[in-house]
Structure formats: C-alpha cells, structure tokens
Amino acid sequence: MAIIERETEVMVPVTVTPTSTYGVLKRPVSATGWRAWVFTVDHKKLGLMYGATAMFFFIVGGVEALLIRLQLAAPNGKVLNADLYNQMFTMHATTMVFLFVMPMAAGLANYFIPLQIGARDVAFPRINALGFWLLLFGGIFINLSWFLGGAADGGWFMYAPNSGPVFSPTNGIDFWAFGLQIAGIASLTGAINLIVTVLNMRAPGMTLMKMPIFTWMMTVVQFLLLFAVPVITVALFLLSFQRNFGARFFDVAAGADPLLWQHLFWIFGHPEVYILVLPAFGIVSEVLPVFSRKPLFGYPFVVFSGAAIGFVGWGVWAHHMFASGLGPVSVAVFSLTTMAIAVPTGVKIINWTLTMWGGKLYFSTAMKFSIGLIVLFTVGGLSGVTHSVAPSDTQQTDTYYIVAHFHYVLFGGAVLGFFSGFYYWWPKMFGKMLNEKLGGWNFWLMVIGMNLTFGPMHILGLQGQPRRMYQWTEARAGEGFFNLAFWNLIASIGSFVLAVGILLFLINVVITARNPTKSPLDPWNSRSLEWMTSNPPKEHNFDVIPTVHHLDEFFHRKYEEDSATHTMRQIATAEEIMAEQERNADKHIHMPSPSYWPIVLAGAVPIITFGMIFSHLIAVIGGVILLFAAFGWALEPSTAPESDFENNSSQGTALDKVGH
Amino acid sequence: MTDAVVHGHESSTGISNVKLGMWAFLGSECLLFGGLISTYMLYRGRVTGGPRPAQIFDIPFTSVSSFVLLMSSLTMVLAVSAAHKNEDRKTNLWLTVTALLGATFVGGQVYEFTAFYNEGLGFSTSLFGSSFYTLTGFHGVHVTVGIIMLMALVGIFKRSEVPGKKAEVVEMIGLYWHFVDIIWIIIFTLVYLIPV
Amino acid sequence: MTTDTTHTATSAEHSENHGMSTAGYIRIAAILAAITALEVSTVYIDFGPFFLPALLIMMAVKFVMVVSYFMHLKFDNKIFSLMFYAGLILAVGVYAAFLATFKFFIQ
Ligand code: HEM
Ligand SMILES: [Cu+2]
C-alpha cells in the first residue's frame, strides 16, 4: 500500500505492506477490502467517498423536495402538516447546500486537483481523510434529529427569533447547529489542505497561470471557505450557547438585536453561494474547450473574473436583508455592490460563449450539460440583478420569485455543472464511459423538468405567493392565466419529471458498471494533465511527474502547430505518451500510509456534540476519545519510516531522499 | 505531527507545507475572533439591570495577567530559537516556562470569572454578560489548548520520538501561541481599557 | 514589509538564519512591556481627546511587533504575510462594515 517498487521491465507495481509500527496503535496494513477504504488517505478514494456521500444526500434532499411539491400541488395540501412542512423545507435546503453541493465539490476537488497539477497526493493526506469523516458524521448527526424528536424547522438561514427555544422547542435546531459546525470543520480543514496543495505541490513548470481552470476556480472556492466558515462558526456558537447554555444573544427582551444573526449568517452566506457555484464554473470551463476543439477563450479573464467574484462577494451580503430595516444608506450601498458583482459573472458567460464560437462543436452529454448551464444560469443571474434593485426586491423578497432565482442559479448552475463533470470525468474515475444515449435522455428530462418546476415560480412569486407557506387556498388563487392553482400544479409535475431525469442517471451508473467495455485512454481528446495517466489513475497518479511547459500541457504533447499552415497537427497519441511515461517510470515512490486516526478523531466529535445536547457526561467521554486520537495522530509519522518496510530498497532514485 | 510529505518533489514555492497551512489557519482565525469581538462591541453596553463593565473590571489585576501572557510570548520565542539550535534541554525548559505562564493566565481568568459571577454577572444576566464570557472564554479555551500542546510536546520530547522535524513542530506551536497572544492584545484594549 | 522575495525553491529550513538573537527578543519584549504600561496608564491619567486614538495605535503597534518579530513574519516568505494579512484585513473590513450598519461608529 504505502510503498511502490517499480522495476523498469515489470509494469505491475508490487505492493509492499508495512510490517511493524510506531505510535500507539499498529498501522492498518490491509490494502484490500473495506479497510482499504475506511483507513485510506488516498485522495482519489476519498474523492469517491465524498462523491458517494454527496450523491446519497442528494437523493435524501430530493425526496424532501418531492414531498414539498406534493404538498403544494393542490389547494389545502394534506401530505404534510405545518410542522412537518417547516422541517421539510429547512432540511431540504440544508441537505442540498451543505451535504450535497459542498461535499460533491470537495470530492471532485480532491480527486482532480492533484491530478491536474501533476501531484501524487495532497499536502496533508490524513487531514484530508479527517475532513471526509467529519463531513459524513456531521451529515448523519444533523439527520439524526428526524428520529429524536423532530428536525430543525427555522428555514435554512435560521433567523432569530424563530430559532429560539420558544418557537422551536424540539432538539432539531441543536442538531442542526452542531451538525453544521462539524461539517464546517471539515470544510475548513479541506480548504487549508487544498490551498497548500495547490500552492506547494504543482509539477515543475506549472506556474499559477498554467494551472487548469478547474483547479483555479476550486482554489478560489477554498479561499472563500477559509474565510467564510469561521463566520458561520461564530454565528452557530452564539445560537448553540443561547439554546443550550442560556446566553441572551438573540433575546429581544434583553435588548438584543435580531439583525446580529442575519448579518453573521449572510456575511458567510453570500460567499457561500459562490462556494456553491464556482466549482461548476470550473467544470464548464474545462468541458467547453474540449468539445469545441478550441482553447478556453480568454483564460486570464476567466481566472481573474473568478478571483474578482471571490473578492467582491464579501461586500454584498446585506442584499439578503433589504426588507429588514437596514436604513437607506446601507441599502443603497449594498444595492450598488450587488449590481457590480454581476459584471465578473457576465465576463465568464461571454468567455464561454466565445469559446464555443467558431469551434467544431461536439455535443456529448457533458457538453450538453455545460451549454445547459450557460443558458439556465444566465436566467438566474438576470433575476438576481432584478433583486439587486432594492425597491423591486422588497416586492420579491420572501416570495416564490426568490425561490425561482436561487434554483436557476443553483440547479441550473451548480447541479448541471456537476452532471457535466460526471459525464466528462466518469471514464477517468472508473475506466468506463457512461452511456451517451441514456445521457441524452438524462439531460433533456432534467432540463425540461427543471424549467417546468422553477420557471412557473417566477410567476407565482410575482403574483404574491409567499415562500415557506404550507398551504395555499383556492379562494386566494386568482383566475385566468396567472392563477396560482395552474402554475403550482405545473411546478409539481415538473419536479417529478426532474426526478425521473435524475433516476436515469442512477440507472446509467448501474448499466455502465455492468458493461464490460473499457473506455479508451483519452476518450474526449482532452487537454489537461489528469488525462495523462491511466483510467482510473494508478495509486501514485503518475509514473513520472511531468514537467509542464504549457497551459493545456497534455494537448501540447499531442499536437504541434504547423508553422506553415498555422493548423494543429497531431504528433503523438495518448497511448504513446502513456507508454513513454511507463518506460521512464520512477523506480521508488513513497506514498502516505493509511491511518486509523482520522476516523477515530472524527468519530469523537459527534459524541461530544451529542453530549452537549443530552448529557455532559457523554461529552466528556467524547473529549477523552478526541484527546487520545489526537495523541495517536501526533505520534504517528504520516509516512511509515523506512524501517517499517520489507525489501528496504537501497537503489532508489534521488526522489526518495526528500520528505523524511 | 508533520504531514508534510513531499511526494517525490520539492514544494513549488520552496516553503514548508505545515507552515503554509498554519498561516492559512491563522488567517482564518482572524475572522473567527473578529466575529466574537464585533458581537461583544455591539453588545457591551446592554446590561439590563446587571453590572456594567466599569463596575466589575479590575484593571490592575487584568493588567498583570495580560503582562504574564505577553511575557509567555517571549519565552515561547526563546524555545523556538533553542529548538532551531538543537538545544534540547533549553527547548524543554522554555516550553515548560511558557506553559506555566499560560496556566497562570488561565488561572487568573478563572479567578476573574468567579469574581464577576459573585458580583452578579452571570452568563445569562445580560447581553454584556453573554458576549463577554463568550469572547474571553473562547480565548481562554485557545490558551488551554495551547498549554496542552506545549505539555504534550515536552512529554514527547522526553521519549524523543517526534515524527517530523522537531524544530518545525516547536515553531508551529509557537505561531499558534503568539496568535493567541495578539488576540489578547486586542481584547485587553477593546474590552478592558476602552470604557463603554 | 521588507521581505526578501528572492529565495524560492531552495531550502525550506531557513528561518533560523533570520532569527534574532536572544538579546534582540528581550529588547522587543521590553518595548512591548513598556507600551503595555503606557496603555494601562491611560486609565489613570487623563489624555483628553488623544485617549482613544492613542490606545488604538498602541494596540496596533504591539500587534504588529509580535507578528513581525516573534512570529518571524517580517523575515519569512511573503506568502505567509499574504495569507495572514488577507484574513486580518478582510476581517477588519467586513466587521467594520457590519458594525457600521448598526450605526456603531456614530453613537
Ligand atoms: C448575478 C449574480 C447574482 C445576483 C445579482 C444575485 C442577487 C441576489 C439577491 C439580491 C438575493 C436576495 C433576494 C431576497 O431574499 O430578497 C439573492 C438570493 C439568493 N441567491 Fe442570488 N444573486 C446572484 C447569483 C447567485 C448565485 C451564483 C447563487 C448560488 C449559486 C445565488 C444563490 C442565491 C440564494 C440561495 C438566494 C436565496 C437565499 C434565501 O433567501 O434563502 N445567487 N440573490
Ligand atoms: Cu447573496
């Protein structure tokens, strides 16, 4: 597992397992079976585990959404009662934002950043594993509340005073606050890990401006996480202290200002929306050039507009609070900054369009999803601009119009981007291509379904249907084209079309897994480094660490410009490049060793928070486990020492001299 | 301790992974303490019948404990300096002194909290109480974590089984410790010295 | 900041070269102690209108001194400064704006 000996002639890596150990517990040594996953520190395995977890929560959140739409399909809905309805929309949003989109982005980043920058792993492999387990346990922890008295019910932004014990007496919000806190630690450790990875572990020659655009956008996201997560951490602590230890932070009787929570939440919340959507922007910026057979138009502009979005995103948060009585000066300032942030977003849309302009377009499923994103995200961006105008927003806020806006940006943006990435990268991750024909159905059903679901919400909202209302009545539905009954029904039907579309994806996954056909090495004729290795990549990613000379390095190894005709001419195939790499393979590669500690440490945290809610004794037990795990971790070297291996090779290359 | 395995090649920037990660973490912590300090600033005057800050603060006492924490930064930096010179005995000595000074500070805080409580300022008494205890409590927890790390380090050094480079580990804990100190520099001025 | 930007892909372990002498550290600590004494004196001596700015400036000076000398930021790679000051400046900016929306500064 941890050390790979490669002989020039033998192409199969020989795996040697550690024999002894050092530290508190013996090291996990098995390289197969469930242990190989649970104790792994390999960024690719962790990436897949993030992805699977996210997909699971996507389904959970999706079922919650369908229940909401069933309830609203007809007047006086009886599917859910008011209380359950509140829990449902709160948990739907929480699940989708924190347990689906963020982990999915983290998973893709984990899997592809090291590959795209030509590294063998991330900077802190064990911390990487810790992050995954915290996320998983945090997600489970939040959802435990369903079975322990009821889930959180204050809406995903959990405004005071609704979040107080008077209006929400169950433990739902306690679980919610602590669970998000746990997921927050995961995001923070993940951000630190990936920032250091990107800055420090690029292959020789890969300057920042030669990095693939997905890596760039993910890096911006990690900086946003680094600085935004602590803000929600503060807010959640204040909330927990109020609910569990009698603090007064949001208690108006004590003179508290309920806007305190709103500010803290949205100082985090607006950067958060870019945390949700920038990964998709990165994916699209990878996919479009490949299927347009052209380089990304204006790479530096895409990079800098991404960074600009990340920066300006810090100065717009109060546009979520226009209706809260902020005062005219604040409203005017935040209205202007919000309009300004549409500019770098627009720059990106223009760049994507010009990337396709004049290209030889190939409409693979990945490409379709990317084009879908450009169109549908733009719709959401435009409605966003309509509510940057504060007077118009006061009409729209807390209506279905807002729901329409953020679903166009989130579903039309983040989700379509992810699906584009799934189809594009599936052969890389699993060595098999998803069925393209089924992919077409998957795409069209999702796009039609989403427009049927969220399009009518613009009308509903402008007609005055409030969000978060558990029933609407026939008497208030109005008449004619704009009557609420018709459009509510359409939206509900649309949601099931959407669900069928997503189901087709899952079916596609199963079919593909059963299909024995392997994908070609470079099925899409791609441009970036992650394609310059086998499918799926070997444990050590690259046989030789590539030296980078170009943006789109892999493309430039395959093609050369003919100086006479100014056309690109193929000089090598992916298979030839791969064979060349195998010939020169590094002989002695050290990979980080698996470890028990990440999962033990992560397991201690929910025990502590559980104890905070129910019994401080349990919290103490959790604390002891935490301390024990921390010591175990600290005493264990991240790579097993040389003496831990059989076959201690003395003829290693210069490579194995670094890092001990 | 160090996860800084350089798998096969030198880091692109030539700087160490752990140190870069540590500074990123400290940058992030600025927003954590910023939020807590802002909450306190917003709420410090809202006392609803409970004691006001000026009525309970004991400036001479807090000045002394602030001074103790400040000096622990000096002993910490001496430990780092000794570690870089591979002077194990000195490193251990200064680490121990730093931990003791830190413990004195935390002890002072416990005393102060008890005194305030007896003078009528509970966690639930007022917004001032809630935000004061939250802010200074968070800081106190950070110091305590620092003390645990220092003592653990001394213990581990005795076993002389430090994975990774000794000096770098000391340096990282040093960065954390100084950070906790500069946060107190801000708290001391904004909370204690500037009246409402 | 006068960070040298030339060292790149060389040794990772150069901080000890920049370290100050023990006497240097003690001097810094003495200055910090003196400023602290001055800060505390503002409680007992009336500084009039200078009170608030003086306190804030002394706080900032102490802060920067610890960061620059004890935490070596002044001598280290400037990426570290970038990381830390990015967070610090963002925090000051965002939270100042936050307090401003509560009219905190014009009470
Ligand atoms: C062109 C850029 C955008 C502009 C000008 C914009 C503007 C706004 C404004 C002013 C609101 C507040 C409306 C209200 O509550 O009254 C809002 C809400 C929201 N936006 Fe955007 N937005 C943009 C892009 C995005 C993106 C990229 C995302 C996420 C990927 C996003 C997600 C959201 C969400 C989730 C809400 C609703 C929050 C809630 O109240 O629950 N927006 N947007
Ligand atoms: Cu926003």
What does this structure look like?
The complex is a heterotrimer of chains A (about 650), B (about 200) and C (about 110). By secondary structure, chain A is mainly alpha-helical. Chain A is built from 18 helices and five strands. Chain A has helices at about 35-40, 45-70, 80-115, 125-145, 170-200, 215-245, 260-290, 300-310, 330-355, 365-390, 390-395, 400-430, 435-460, 485-515, 555-560, 575-585, 595-615, 615-635; strands at about 5, 15, 560, 565-570, 590. Chain A is globular. By secondary structure, chain B is mainly α. Chain B has one domain: Cytochrome c oxidase, subunit III, four-helix bundle (Four Helix Bundle (Hemerythrin (Met), subunit A), Up-down Bundle). In chain B, helix 3 (about 60-85) runs antiparallel to helix 4 and helix 3 (about 60-85) runs antiparallel to helix 6. The relative contact order of chain B is 0.18. Chain C has about 110 residues and is mostly helical. Helices cover about 65% and strands about 0% of the residues of chain C. Chain C is built from four helices and no strands. Chain C is flat, with a radius of gyration of 18 Å. At the B-C interface, helix 1, helix 3 and helix 6 of B face helix 2, helix 3 and helix 4 of C. Bound molecules: protoporphyrin IX containing FE (HEM) and copper (II) ion. Protoporphyrin IX containing FE binds next to helix 7, helix 9, helix 10, helix 11 and helix 12 of chain A.
